[in-house]
Structures are given as structure tokens and as C-alpha cells.
Write a structure and sequence with these properties.
3 helices, 19% strand, globular
Length: 134
């Protein structure tokens, strides 16, 4: 059983901030920044790709509600809302979860996106291929 399932089942203590019949949210013990919170479905799903679509549609209103509360309490100036999907993407617990990471002017957390080297033709071709599989 994964660590998040153990938290959901009450086998491991957590700092709960939200709970309903389908989801649990709790403070991340690493606290990348003050208020760093994880939102997980109570039922185990390995990652976003295995999550049922009805649960996917329910989770973002919860994430928004929690982020608004964190902003009020901590005076966060922004947020990173993050999901790592798969080990190569940095997912370390194979139970779908969303990170709510409050951001402050002088925090040390850093996410950087690099520029791409794709041509317009390559981007158009890729966009069409993706669009045609939806």
C-alpha cells in the first residue's frame, strides 16, 4: 500500500486541511514553501492518466478553494499548481496528487522552462497529430 493510501486510511498521521468523500488534502511534510499542500483522491490512482474523468473534473474546484484559503492565511503572492505524472517527470509517490505550492517574493523554490528548438512546421505537425487523436 502506498504512503498516500496509508495517510487516507489514517495509518500515518497527517496535517489535514480538507476532506470530503472523494478527496483529502494535507500539508506536505517537506514544505517547499510555507503552506505547501497536497490534494489526493482517496481511491488509489497511479497518476493523472489513470484518474477517472469525473474525479478529474472535481479536483480543481477543491484546489482553487484551498489555494484561496492558503493565500488568505499566509499572504502568498502567487502559486505553482503542479502535478508530476510519471517517474521521469519527478513523480516520487505513485498515487495521483496535485501540489499547491504558495509562492513568495524571496522564496528559494525555482521552476524554469527552457526554450524549444522546434520549427513552426514541426509545431504545426505536432499540434495536428495531437488534435487528430482527441
Amino acid at each position: 500500500m502506498c504512503i498516500f493510501c496509508k495517510i487516507v486510511n489514517g495509518e500515518i498521521p497527517s496535517y489535514k486541511v480538507y476532506e470530503d468523500e472523494n478527496f483529502l488534502a494535507f500539508l506536505d511534510i517537506s514544505q517547499t514553501t510555507k503552506g505547501h499542500t497536497l490534494v489526493v483522491p482517496k481511491r488509489h490512482y497511479d497518476n493523472l492518466l489513470s484518474l477517472e474523468s469525473d474525479l478529474a473534473s472535481q479536483i480543481f474546484p477543491i484546489v482553487q478553494k484551498i489555494a484561496l484559503s492558503i493565500k488568505e492565511i499566509t499572504k502568498a503572492e502567487g502559486f505553482n499548481i503542479l502535478n508530476n505524472c510519471g517517474e521521469v517527470a519527478g513523480q516520487s509517490v505513485m498515487h495521483f496528487h496535485i501540489h499547491i505550492i504558495p509562492r513568495y517574493a524571496n522564496d528559494s523554490f525555482n521552476i524554469q522552462f527552457s526554450s524549444n528548438s522546434f520549427t513552426n512546421e514541426e509545431l504545426n505537425d505536432l499540434a495536428e497529430k495531437i488534435k487528430n487523436t482527441l
